[in-house]
Amino acid sequence: MSAHPRSERGGMSASLKLLAPLCFSVGLLVALRLLGPQYLDQRQLSDWLRPLGLLAPVVFILLLAIRPVTLLPGQFFTAVGGLLFGMAHGTVYALLGSVLATGVIHLVASRLGRKPMRRLAGRRHTALQHVARGHGFQLGFLACINSVIPADVLLATASASGARFWPLALGALVGTAPGTMLTALFGSALGQGKTWTTLASVSGLLISLLLGLALGRRLMRELLVEDHPEEHASEDTERRGGPPRSPAVGRPRPTAASTSSSS
After folding, report:
1. How far apart are the first and last CA of the chain?
2. Does the pTM of the predicted model rise above 0.85?
3. Burial class for 249, CB neighbours closer than 10 Å (0-12, 13-18, 19+)
4. How far apart, in whole angstroms, are the C-alpha atoms of residue 196 and residue 238?
5. Considering Cα of 62, then 65, then 68, then 74, what sign does the dihedral take?
6. At what angle do helices 125-134 and 195-227 cross, to 10 degrees?
7. pLDDT tens sequence across 121-173
8. How do residues 174-209 score in pLDDT, each as one tens digit?
9. What is the CA 61 to chain-centroid distance, rounded?
10. Could you give the C-alpha distances from 219 to 127, 128, 165, 200, 226, in angstroms and in order?
11. Separation CA 76–CA 145 (nearest Å)
């Protein structure tokens, strides 16, 4: 009976750790806005960036592309993009940078991560390969549907397990679009001093986190059960305390000839 409180505490602590990047990004920008509003004024920042022309969004997109190597949270970059370029342009630039970042992750993980993944996954490596190769779009969508799931880790795992780039990148693009739009809206509203819009965007982010987490768990379980139903059936049976059922394979059925000869 004491195992349930421990598992609940472990799940809560894991969720809090996964929420840390989002809380850091939002808290840092809000603190900067409160302590030094002149540094986060969108009009002033736009005036500073205007002499750079097209170079400013290009540099921003390239920084997002190499962001996985720096281990910095993507939410912070997206919020800064909304702050610098507005919600619409910030969303577009952040999505382009995310696609390039997925390409960087896929290139590195598929070249260098296959042998380590085989050792880490062990007997589940075949199942991971099957899921990654057959459901690249779903895995990309699952990795980026909300900011709680460590997207870079899941994308790297899928890439190292044999997922193709374009289905994975397309799924990541679709999955990251709602959160990217809300985060860019938060940055833009913060830069314009719109308090209610800022609060509404933060509320939307929290709702998307909860919905995305529930959807992600369900999708992952459906993918695993779909590809390996017999493994999960035996695990469920063992969890209930009974032995796993062995399929009746190779047992011949009685035929009419054998029945008549035995009589």
Report:
1. 58
2. no
3. exposed
4. 52
5. positive
6. 120
7. 777 777 778 878 888 898 888 888 765 567 888 899 899 988 999 999 999 99
8. 989 988 998 899 888 888 878 787 788 777 777 776
9. 19
10. 16, 15, 20, 28, 10
11. 17
